[in-house]
Amino acid sequence: MNPLSFDEMWARIMACDSSYDGLFYTAVKTTGIYCRPSCRSRKPKKVNVEFYLHMDDAETAGYRACKRCRPENEHSPNVGVVREVKEFLIRHHKQKLELKDIAQHVGLSAYHLDRLFKQETSVTPRVFLEKIRMDRAAHLLMHTGQSNLEICYEVGFLSPSSFYKAFRQAMGCSPSEYRKTIHMAQEESSS
């Protein structure tokens, strides 16, 4: 089961977010093609999209690989480990995680995992975990009526002050300002 909702995956492909590459694939019913989340090709209509967790599943369903983003080309031998770490972080983002916990899950030393992950993704597992939490918080702010405090704990922060600080650093505004801006933009687009 995918820990990301359809709308969360849709947001990642609309943002061409390469940090989610390998975690899921976007298949377009009208073209018969599947892509990475970071593909820069023209975006399909939302109703024409299906998501798959594995390339094999997309190919079994009759889709072929995109010739632009070439999802079937995984150049590094560490791609599998990085994908496993990303999946682990997405599934457990609500929990208090330390590097040793993540390393133990993939069978590496904490030092080696940190170095390998950063080499492959240009960020550490801790930074990636915070990105997952911020993406999830932004999604909840847009699509739910939960309070900022509820969202803080829902996405895995242990204190509101660390949540507000991380959110402001990542998004450039407070959670309340973000929600207000999003709702104003939605109202303008619907009128």
Automatic annotation (TrEMBL):
The entry's keywords: Activator, DNA-binding, Methyltransferase, Transcription, Transcription regulation, Transferase
InterPro entries: Ada-like_dom_sf, Ada_DNA_repair_Zn-bd, Homeodomain-like_sf, HTH_AraC, Me-P-triester_DNA_alkyl-Trfase, Tscrpt_reg_AraC-type_HTH
Alphabetized Pfam families for the sequence: Ada_Zn_binding, HTH_18
SUPFAM superfamilies: Ada DNA repair protein, N-terminal domain (N-Ada 10) (SSF57884), Homeodomain-like (SSF46689)
GO biological process: DNA repair; methylation
Listed cofactors: Zn(2+)
Gene3D superfamilies linked to this entry: DNA Methylphosphotriester Repair Domain, Homeodomain-like
MF (Gene Ontology): DNA-binding transcription factor activity; methyltransferase activity; sequence-specific DNA binding; zinc ion binding
Domain HTH araC/xylS-type, first and last residues per copy: 83-181
Keyword Ligase attributed: no
Protein name according to UniProt: Helix-turn-helix domain-containing protein
Species in which this protein is naturally found: Paenibacillus pinisoli
